[in-house]
């Protein structure tokens, strides 16, 4: 996805925490929305242990890196960041450094011994232990807590939410799929769902406390099952959309092999369920999809797209694409380009393949596409997506769209930035509006990533 005003998968954000005895904590968050939601849980756990927020990283006594291991360059970024911290650790007596999340969970002891100046590491299932780990680290101990707890859903912990308008709500954790390229089943463990009643209660609470939008999160939301076994994700969406009709509701991520007609029907029926479906395809070649162990063919994917558009003709469909997976030929790559032209994705997250140690692909396939070829194919994919997005976005010029205003625009305080239900970024003249307002905006211009316009009712 090219340079939208607010990227859907931002690379990193931070929060700061400080306790009353001036022991302060700064958290850098790398990776996906699930990591951002986890940082809000970690913030809550640390606040309950007596810490409070500060905005001064330089005065922090504890630095936490909430890490992402999905791609090699994400892991490299953590490594580079740690190298910068190494000097500070030497200079600042008593500084405690912790790395949490997917990288230590994935690399385990190798990671801990590679960075001897890191005081503790914790995996996604052990965040409740962070206060005691920090205490031990101040006492001079090095600790790794990387156990899996396949029941941990952090119930009873009230996340300290960073946003006031739009927020994330994990409805499940972990992944039971075995996509050949992916580390997530190792880093985040087995699937487990948050009970339907808890999700509905939390969504109602968000609505009454002034939030305007929530994104329900899971690696594969279609695997959602209430503990009673009776409710699937379509039933969950049905329940939350009725419980908070004034709240916009989004979700991510759906898996193409599991997305059901029931789910699409409920989205079509309910005005507060956004008409945006993120449906990662990874490749347009059935041969690649088989090697990737995605569980569906190109034709099956296209049939699912047809089914979605039959129920929701104006749905925006976005995707993830990987260029240069093992053995990918020029013909496979052309299949990806032709699938993109056929579906005309609204936007895509596009990556070149990087081997993740220990995955099925690493153990069984050769990473035989030269890096230069991977990058050239990725570039072609990006360029095609830009053309398609630009055409689709330009098709909105002259239309009036409903936008939830989120923030001031990066470029001017006289403009606001928000999103349509289809998840398109829109920048518009502020007029009398404020973040949190739902605004009807007439679109006057478009790039491949952002629409711009003026409110219809500017007075
Ligand atoms: N659960 C989601 C699904 O199944 O579509 C995907 C979650 S994964 C964190 C996000 C995206 O990262 C994937 O859809 C894939 O495109 C990309 N990805 C994962 N492993 C990768 C790898 N080894 N190399 C390149 N991209 C990768
Ligand atoms: Fe990874 Fe596949 Fe699970 Fe998505 S569904 S998190 S790509 S294993």
CATH class of the largest domain: Alpha Beta
CATH fourth-tier homologous superfamily of the largest domain: tm_1862 like domain
Which term fits the overall shape? globular
Low-confidence stretches: 1-13
Overall pLDDT, averaged?
Answer: 92
Radius of gyration, in Å, reads 22 Å
For the sheet with most strands, the description reads: 7 strands, mixed
Q: What distance separates the N and C termini? A: 34 Å
Which sequence of strands runs across the widest sheet? Answer: 3-1-2-4-5-6-7
Question: How many structural domains can be distinguished in the coordinates?
Answer: 3
What ligand species are in this complex? S-adenosylmethionine, iron/sulfur cluster
Number of strands: 20
Note the total helix count: 13
Characterization of this structure:
- The protein is built from 13 helices and 20 strands.
- The longest helix is centred in the last third of the chain and has 24 residues, at 371-394.
- The two termini are 34 Å apart.
- The strands form five sheets. The chain has a seven-stranded mixed sheet, with helices on both faces. The protein has a five-stranded mixed barrel with strand order 16-17-18-20-19.
- It has 459 residues and is α/β, with parallel strands linked by helices.
- Helix content is 35%, strand content 23%.
- The chain folds into three domains: 12-145, 3-Layer(aba) Sandwich (Rossmann fold); 166-394, pyruvate-formate lyase- activating enzyme (Alpha-Beta Horseshoe); 400-458, Nucleic acid-binding proteins (OB fold (Dihydrolipoamide Acetyltransferase, E2P)), CATH 2.40.50.
- Helix 6 packs parallel to helix 7 (233-243), helix 7 runs parallel beside helix 8 (261-269) and helix 11 (330-343) packs parallel to helix 13 (371-394).
């Amino acid at each position: 996805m090219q340079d939208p005003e607010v990227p859907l998968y931002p690379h990193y954000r931070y929060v700061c925490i400080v306790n009353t005895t001036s022991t302060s904590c700064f958290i850098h968050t790398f990776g996906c929305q699930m990591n951002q939601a986890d940082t809000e849980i970690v913030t809550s756990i640390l606040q309950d242990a007596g810490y409070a927020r500060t905005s001064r990283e330089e005065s922090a006594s504890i630095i936490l890196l909430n890490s992402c291991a999905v791609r090699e360059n994400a892991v490299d970024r953590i490594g580079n960041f740690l190298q910068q911290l190494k000097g500070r650790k030497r200079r600042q007596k008593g500084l405690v450094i912790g790395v949490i999340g997917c990288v230590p969970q994935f690399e385990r002891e190798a990671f801990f011994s590679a960075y001897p100046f890191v005081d503790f590491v914790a995996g996604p299932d052990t965040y409740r232990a962070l206060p005691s780990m920090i205490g031990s680290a101040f006492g001079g101990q090095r600790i790794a807590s990387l156990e899996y707890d396949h029941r941990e859903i952090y119930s009873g912990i009230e996340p300290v939410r960073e946003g006031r308008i739009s927020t994330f709500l994990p409805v499940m954790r972990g992944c039971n799929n075995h996509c050949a390229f992916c580390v997530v089943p190792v880093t985040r463990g087995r699937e487990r769902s948050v009970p339907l009643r808890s999700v509905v209660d939390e969504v109602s609470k968000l609505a009454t406390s002034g939030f305007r939008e929530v994104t329900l999160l899971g690696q594969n939301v279609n695997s959602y099952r209430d503990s009673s076994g009776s409710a699937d994700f379509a039933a969950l969406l049905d329940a939350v959309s009725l419980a908070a009709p004034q709240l916009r509701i989004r979700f991510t991520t759906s898996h193409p092999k599991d997305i059901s007609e029931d789910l699409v029907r409920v989205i079509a029926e309910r005005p507060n369920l956004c008409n945006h479906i993120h449906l990662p395809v990874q490749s347009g070649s059935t041969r690649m999809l088989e090697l990737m162990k995605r569980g569906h063919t190109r034709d099956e994917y296209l049939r699912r797209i047809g089914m979605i558009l039959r129920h929701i003709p104006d749905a925006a469909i976005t995707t993830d694409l990987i260029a240069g997976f093992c053995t990918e030929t020029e013909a496979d790559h052309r299949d990806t380009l032709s699938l993109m032209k056929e579906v005309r994705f609204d936007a895509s997250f596009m990556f070149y393949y990087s081997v993740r140690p220990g995955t099925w692909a690493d153990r069984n396939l050769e990473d035989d596409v030269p890096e230069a070829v991977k990058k050239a194919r990725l570039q072609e994919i990006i360029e095609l997506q830009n053309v398609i997005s630009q055409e689709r976005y330009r098709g909105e010029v002259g239309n009036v769209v409903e936008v939830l205003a989120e923030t001031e625009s990066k470029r001017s305080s006289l403009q606001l930035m928000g999103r349509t239900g289809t998840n398109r970024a829109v920048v518009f003249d502020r007029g009398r509006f404020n973040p949190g307002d739902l605004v009807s905006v007439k679109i006057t211009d478009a790039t491949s990533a952002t629409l711009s316009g003026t409110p219809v009712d500017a007075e």
